[in-house]
Design goal:
Blueprint lengths: L3 E8 L2 H13 L5 E14 L2 E15 L3 H11 L8 E4 L5 H10 L2
Antiparallel strand pairs: 1-3, 1-4, 2-3
């Protein structure tokens, strides 16, 4: 089953997350996505602890397309160093996983 991958990123606004999600789906880089938020994040940046409100974007794709999706997200993302984490799906509804595979072009 490990050929389906869930990719997560965060961004600075709901609008940005929606734009990234809709464009990724439209390009068939992903089968679907969800936007969650707001979430509060804390992180080191420029030698200081920063805290910000962000929106989490979760995308479903295949292992074959995850590299292309990562490259595209980094190019389109408003952050200098965007979080792009890919986690293989090791279990799930077989019908849903088949749907993800069929929808990713």
């Amino acid at each position: 089953m490990g050929d389906v991958v869930q990719v997560v990123t965060t961004t600075d606004s709901e609008e940005s997350a929606l734009r990234l999600m809709q464009n990724a789906v439209g390009r068939r880089l992903v089968a679907c996505g969800q936007v969650d938020g707001p979430v509060t994040s804390a992180y080191w940046w420029d030698s200081a602890v920063e805290t910000s409100i962000e929106w989490r974007l979760t995308l479903k794709t295949t292992a074959a397309r995850v590299g292309e999706l990562r490259t595209w997200l980094v190019e389109q993302h408003p952050y200098d160093v965007p979080e792009v984490l890919a986690t293989p799906v090791t279990d799930g509804n077989p019908d849903y996983l088949a749907w993800v595979r069929s929808e990713v072009g």
